[in-house]
């Protein structure tokens, strides 16, 4: 083999390892930790196995079933780990079980997909809600603590410590790897959906054009929703969430001018929206509506669906958007929902009515909520109330993290 | 608890201070300052003149040493500081990210050491 051939084989092997790691990480961690409830050890074992793959596969070739190879190697590492800490009496049966299953996996090269259980573990009520998404990103997707820390604007050391604490809680707190019973399934599923959507939201807000980090996180969230849909194809809200994210994703290219300046939704060129993504979103939304179980994510997706219709009709049906917001406020009266509702009211009934809707939102909540001030500034400007508008613009600008949005608002402020 | 936001700025950001009242960086700072005050978390702070206006004093072996310029010679220099009253480091990082200097320079967040202040002031 010539030097360049060897190099290209190495590159192919590396790509294979990356691909297997991405596609199988969550499956392997879920399966390895389902019995032991020890997520941290499962992750350690898997990263040992990946390191081993990096050193042996380029020499020996990629095994026929790479995932099974990683599983067996990781499993041996878990067995070693359990053997080392064999203080508890309970570990002997665990060890036996692990060994038996290890043989099974090697022979059949098949193992059950336990990721759904892992998703429910990550979003268990006993775990700090702020840690649901970071845990999910780490255990199911294999993102490292530093990257998660960037996305969540937390110091990397702190994020690392919080992740360790959460995993200890899973292990020591007796959190079981199981899909919740029917009676609590809805509520528990909401937590899973919220956690996935939070990852998407961070990816979405973080899109500065220069940095690819945000974009990746939005893609990861969509990938997670697809996994969840595979595991729970009958749940309408899972499709609702996926449809919502796909609608937003479809507009990615239209959100910035080529020079990086911000473009608000109403001024976006709908020719730049991705029709395949919109169509996929619409299919999921239609499928969800057949289930007859409306929910927050389907309503939010429906609002985005109406915005998307502008690509065909050239206009936005604000009456429908306002109606969906009214329904949404009933089940999820968040700041975001109420601000969105006020903006829709302003489109339908004029700026005065929109302002009145904004005034109904409590003063405590809004002091650090940027979209409220952006909408308020816009409406006050429309009404010619210049001093108040300037003040609201300043609040919106001061609360903005994205330099492109800041520049946009500074220009509008004048 | 109180946090100091230490604002590190590039030479270009220092130079922009000489521009007129319509300078977008100045506009962003005005808006940011207003947002801090309106959120009820602003304790105090000040911008500093450029690093070239600094003079550094040291006593080495009892001898005075005076140096033109800042103590540490780095590209981004301390351009000012803001003290905020906030419940947690997480909240302080949120506000640091909104600071106009964060996208062109850097903002270091440090907790104010009230323990040490107490020992100093008695």
Short recap of the structure:
The complex is a heterodimer of chains A (414) and B (122). With 414 residues, chain A is mostly helical.
Describe the protein:
- Chain A is mostly helical and 414 residues long.
- Chain A is built from 20 helices and no strands.
- The longest helix of chain A is centred in the N-terminal third of the chain and has 34 residues.
- Chain B has 122 residues and is of the alpha+beta class.
- In chain B, 31% of the residues lie in helices and 34% in strands.
- Chain B is built from four helices and six strands, in the order E-H-H-E-E-E-E-H-E-H.
- Chain B has one domain: 2-Layer Sandwich (Alpha-Beta Plaits).
- In chain B, the strands form two sheets. A four-stranded antiparallel beta sheet of chain B has the order 2-5-1-6. In chain B, strands 3-4 form a two-stranded antiparallel ribbon.
- At the A-B interface, helix 19 and helix 20 of A face helix 2 and helix 3 of B.
Question: Tags for this entry?
Answer:
heterodimer; A: 414 residues; mainly alpha; 20 helices; elongated; B: 122 residues; alpha+beta; Alpha-Beta Plaits; four-stranded antiparallel β-sheet; two-stranded antiparallel sheet; 31% helix; 34% strand
| Number of spatially distinct domains of chain B | 1
CATH architectural arrangement of chain B:
2-Layer Sandwich
- Which bin fits the share of residues in helices of chain B? 25-40%
Query: What are the secondary-structure elements of chain A, in order, as H or E?
Result: HHHHHHHHHHHHHHHHHHHH
What is the oligomeric state here? Answer: heterodimer
Q: What percent of residues of chain A are in strands?
A: under 5%
Biggest chain contact? A-B, 21 and 23 residues
Helix-strand pattern of chain B, N to C?
EHHEEEEHEH
* Lateral strand order in the biggest sheet of chain B: 2-5-1-6
Average residue-wise pLDDT of chain B: 94
Average per-residue pLDDT of chain A, rounded, comes to 88
Helical/strand content category of chain A = mainly alpha
Stretches of chain B where pLDDT falls below 50 for ≥5 residues? none
Shape of chain B: flat
Summed up, the helix count of chain A is 20
Rough outline of chain A:
elongated
What's the main sheet of chain A like?
Answer: none
DSSP helix count of chain B?
4
């Amino acid at each position: 083999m010539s030097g360049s051939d060897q190099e290209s084989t190495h590159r192919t092997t590396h790509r294979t390892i990356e691909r297997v790691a991405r596609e199988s990480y969550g499956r392997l961690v879920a399966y390895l930790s389902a019995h032991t409830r020890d997520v941290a050890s499962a992750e350690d074992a898997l990263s040992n196995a990946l390191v081993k793959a990096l050193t042996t596969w380029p020499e020996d070739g990629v095994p026929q079933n790479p995932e099974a190879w990683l599983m067996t190697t990781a499993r041996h590492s878990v067995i070693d780990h359990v053997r080392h800490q064999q203080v508890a009496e309970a570990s002997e049966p665990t060890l036996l079980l692990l060994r038996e299953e290890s043989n099974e996996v090697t022979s059949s090269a098949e193992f059950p997909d336990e990721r759904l259980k892992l998703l429910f573990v990550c979003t268990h009520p006993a775990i700090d809600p702020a840690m649901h998404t970071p845990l999910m990103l780490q255990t199911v997707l294999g993102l490292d603590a530093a990257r998660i820390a960037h996305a969540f604007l937390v110091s990397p050391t702190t994020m690392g410590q919080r992740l360790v604490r959460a995993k200890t809680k899973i292990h020591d707190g007796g959190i079981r790897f199981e899909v919740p019973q029917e009676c609590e399934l809805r509520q528990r599923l909401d937590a899973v959906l919220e956690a996935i959507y939070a990852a998407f939201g961070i990816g979405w807000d973080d899109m500065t054009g220069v940095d690819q980090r945000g974009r990746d996180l939005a893609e990861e969230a969509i990938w997670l929703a697809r996994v969840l849909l595979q595991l729970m194809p009958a749940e309408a809200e899972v499709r609702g969430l996926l449809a919502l994210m796909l609608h937003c994703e479809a507009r990615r290219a239209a959100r910035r001018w080529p020079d990086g300046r911000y473009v608000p939704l109403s001024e976006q060129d709908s020719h730049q929206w991705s029709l395949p993504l919109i169509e996929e979103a619409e299919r999921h939304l239609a499928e969800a509506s057949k289930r007859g179980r409306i929910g927050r994510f389907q309503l939010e997706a429906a609002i985005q669906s109406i915005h998307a219709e502008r690509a065909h009709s050239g206009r936005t049906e604000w009456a429908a958007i306002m109606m969906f917001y009214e329904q949404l406020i009933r089940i999820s009266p968040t700041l975001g929902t109420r601000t969105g509702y006020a903006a829709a009211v302003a489109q339908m009934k004029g700026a005065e009515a929109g302002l009145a809707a904004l005034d109904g939102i409590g003063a405590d909540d809004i002091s650090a909520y940027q979209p409220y001030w952006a909408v308020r500034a816009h409406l006050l400007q429309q009404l010619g109330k210049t001093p108040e508008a300037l003040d609201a613009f300043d609040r919106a600008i001061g609360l903005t993290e994205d330099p492109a949005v800041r520049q946009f608002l500074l220009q509008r402020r004048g | 608890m109180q946090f100091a936001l230490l604002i590190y700025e590039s030479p270009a950001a220092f130079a922009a201070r000489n521009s007129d009242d319509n300078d977008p960086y100045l506009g962003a700072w005005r808006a940011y300052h207003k947002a801090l005050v309106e959120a009820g978390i602003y304790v105090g702070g000040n911008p500093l003149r450029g690093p070239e206006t600094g003079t550094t004093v040291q006593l080495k072996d009892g001898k005075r040493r005076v140096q033109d310029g800042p103590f540490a010679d780095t590209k981004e220099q301390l351009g000012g500081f803001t003290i905020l009253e906030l419940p947690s480091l997480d909240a302080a990082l949120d506000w640091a990210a909104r600071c106009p200097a964060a996208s062109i320079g850097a903002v270091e967040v440090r907790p104010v050491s009230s323990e040490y202040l107490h020992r100093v002031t008695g």
